[in-house]
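Encode chain A's predicted structure.
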Amino acid sequence: MTTTRRRGGLLRHHDFRRLWLADGFSQFGDRVSFVAVPLLAATTLHASAFEVSLLRTVQTAAYLMLGLQVGAWCDRLRCRPVLLTADLGQAAVFASVPIAAMFGVLSLAQLYVVVAIAGVLSVFFTVAHQTYLPRLVPPDDLTEGNARLQANLSVAAVSAPTASGFLLQYLGGPAALGVDALSFLWSAGWLSRIRTREPKPERPERVPMRREIAEGIAYIARRPDLRAFAGSYAQTSLFQAPQLALGTLFLLREIHLSPGAIGLVGTIGLTGALTGAATARRLGDRFGNGRMLWVSGLLFGLGTALAPLTQPGWLIALYPLGGFLNAYSITVMSVLMVSHTQASTPPELRGRVTATMRFLVFGIAPIGAAITGVLGETLGLRTTLWIGAAGILLAALWLWPVRRDDLRMP
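Encoded structure for chain A:
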């Protein structure tokens, strides 16, 4: 494994820099589609609240069906080919949207198929990505590596909403997804330039898939710190669904913003992600990782509660303020949780532990999105957002047991 030069940080590590650039473009593509797909469905294809929520359900259903299996596969495979295949596949499926629009045959059914396939590929990319990093950099650099990769997500989260909103407003939703396809191609190009040889993981014996999956789950169940993370992930994912699935529709139909303005509001709020990525490690070192996780969980709940308080006029400022708190707290929690999990998990279990954690985030997401669609149609958008905010605030209780723990790496 290449040794990182401490003075220059991980960006002096040539192959990490290529992974970092690839991840940045891939994250940008993900965030473009996150905003553009529901806007395209609501404006061009005239989808209802339930149909928009169903898009989120379909997109994340792959985690429910495949999330645990993919973790076991990634423990057996080299991860870079998996990442390349996932990027190229997502480029192809998102490119089909502007092509269909050119011929006048784009439909909501095609959009469901596109997000379903992209969702499957995203499962492979996400699990392989987090499994690959510890194979590429030394253990002491994992926190810095995760912070830099989280910063990519932050930059994408800040820049993509505005870009996709104005692309959709002036060029149309299909053009936004065309840009999305190009970003995945660019990501694949950087991945192909990584030169560090990744050894194929050795398996001493072939065991049933169910047993391999059970080993990953059992490892989490034995660890109080990982159990707290798992509970927080699961409850947060379930109750974050209203804002993820209906936030864009809420701003469009209740607050009466244009697509461009919606993108701008999202960008202002998500600047918190940049702040979180820049400060997570220092705050954890100064105050303790456990304490920062607990405080971040509370901030997440409070930020989510500002969304349903938003009204036309000056109170529209509450939405980006809440977005700032959400993005900041999610980023800090992600950097600290993922770094600790990677460093404290044996190499032969990392893929399965990562997949189990991601399963608790994204496997529950389609259930939350389906429930959100029903609640949005029956109770209204604002009430549904309030239910989500209450659930996220209570999810912070999962992190109470680790608040006094500095979560030092074993």
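The two ends are 21 Å apart (CA to CA).
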